[in-house]
Amino acid sequence: MTLTTTRRALIATGTLGLGALSIPGLAQVVPTLGATGFTHSVASGEPGQDSMLLWTRYVPLRGDSAKLVVELSETPDFARVAATGAEITGPWRDWTTKITVWGLKPGTRYHYRFVAPDGTRSPTGITKTLPQGAARSFKAAIFSCSNMGYGWFNAYAHAAARDDLDLAVHLGDYFYEYSPGTYPSANVAVPGRVPQPTGETIHLADYRLRYASYRADPDLQALHARVPWIVQWDDHESANDSWEGGAQNHNPATEGDWNARRAASVQAYREWMPVSDEPWKAYEIGQLATLWRTETRLFARTRQTEIAELLKAPDPAAAMRAFRDGAWSDPAVTMMGSSQESWLFHDLKRSVKARQRWQVVGFGTIMGNLSTPKAAGDWLAGSSPRAQGYIKAGIMAAQNGLPSNLDSWGGYPAARRRFLQAAQAADAELVVICGDSHNAWAFDLAQDGAAGVEFAGHAVSSPGYESALTQDPALVARTLVAANPELKWCDTARRGYMAMTITPERVSNDWLFVDTIRQRNPAASIGHTATVTRGRRRMAA
């Protein structure tokens, strides 16, 4: 469906149907644009063992506010309502509603719906509380980097059609802030996949409209209505390579004060996403695991250095070495800030003492050590000029002891060391999950000994190495694995999502690859599986 509609139509956009996926238990609704009523289906998030946050958006035909009631039932006919809640919404929150309902049963699947003042009902969603006590298995689908312009969200569609998922986790870049025609360029963009507004998202109205545009996607709606979500932002929900005091893609001279833009992005995120206002949080998955969502972008992150800046020096190699021996290693350089570090490090200990079997931490960017090998020079032939510059810079950085990406944990080695040492001191069974890179990776994390594993996810639709290189992706992957001791496997060519299964004695992760993103087709298959056994803290060979 073409999403290039008028601003007014998208502000009050009609719900797009879930029927194309034929998912049992989900309401079948007809796409209508420019309508009032329930405009963007339903969603759930922040799962607890006895509670759930439930989301919808409702625009009344008239009036400046509306009271909505939510109902939950263990059966799709709502013959017996298990719990209810109510909230008043209005334009001050872009007509979105988030109601947290408690008193629910652990590990129980619920149907839920909202009821408007005139008696109309929203589509019906399905959610599931977290288990309590002993649990045999728990499965989460993990997503990142969803760029509408590059193609269809077939990863969401595939996951929405599954019946074995307990949870969806989104690790950031839920949308992209650029003006249409920028990333992707107009000649690359898939026809009809053009989000609103027509300019870059800078002000609150812009961010709200971009969410409205993305959330009109039928496959994204379907997955939101199918399972509860845990979500955290990375950079593109605000601006590229954002940090506490600015962003690479923010120009104060033309785009105003960064703090105003940051506040607008945070407000719209909290309005449109099924997430609480807590910046970071822990979730207890029975006695299987503790899962943490974190904040590593907007509230405390130190400004990242770009390798391109070092290349501008009269002697780039000398500038890299000086950076390596100075600012790069500074313990004051932080991803999370001292408050969040203290909370997370203490909570790792608490989780272990509570005999949780696994400690699973979600970050926005890759933690595994990754550098560009000299052999990557063989990839230059036929590559784009931008890719050639990136590869050459990465090779020089590696020759001078630096990683290929300073926006990831590679640019924050002291903070990385503190985190891994805290996990080791707590005797944690550490599993790190992350996104951001658009490619798929599996790392053994080490800090003077084994510390844990990392499953790094590929993009839902954003392009990876394959978009800039002409080399065989299998050769690229082999070259990277051979040159990086922590890296055990990677795929640099395909899009999709991860599916992680937690059991008492092991955690396994599937990387699923969709057949295409250029057409709407939910076909996908498992391309690789990695497993870590409790007590080993490294992946099985």
**Count of DSSP E strands?**
22
Structural class: alpha+beta
Determine Rg (CA atoms, Å): 23 Å
Largest sheet at a glance? 7 strands, mixed
Q: Which regions are unreliable across 5 or more consecutive residues at pLDDT < 50?
A: 1-34
Globular, elongated, flat, extended or rod-shaped: what is the shape?
Answer: globular
Number of helices: 12
Share of helical residues: 10-25%
Give the N-to-C terminal Cα separation.
45 Å
- Strand proportion: 15-25%
* Spatial strand arrangement across the major sheet: 13-14-15-16-18-17-19
Overall average residue pLDDT = 93
Short précis:
By secondary structure, the protein is of the alpha+beta class.
Structure notes:
- This protein is of the alpha+beta class.
- It has 12 helices and 22 strands.
- The strands form 5 sheets. The chain has a 7-stranded mixed sheet with strand order 13-14-15-16-18-17-19.
- α2 packs parallel to α4, α3 packs parallel to α6 and α9 packs parallel to α11.
- The longest helix has 17 residues.
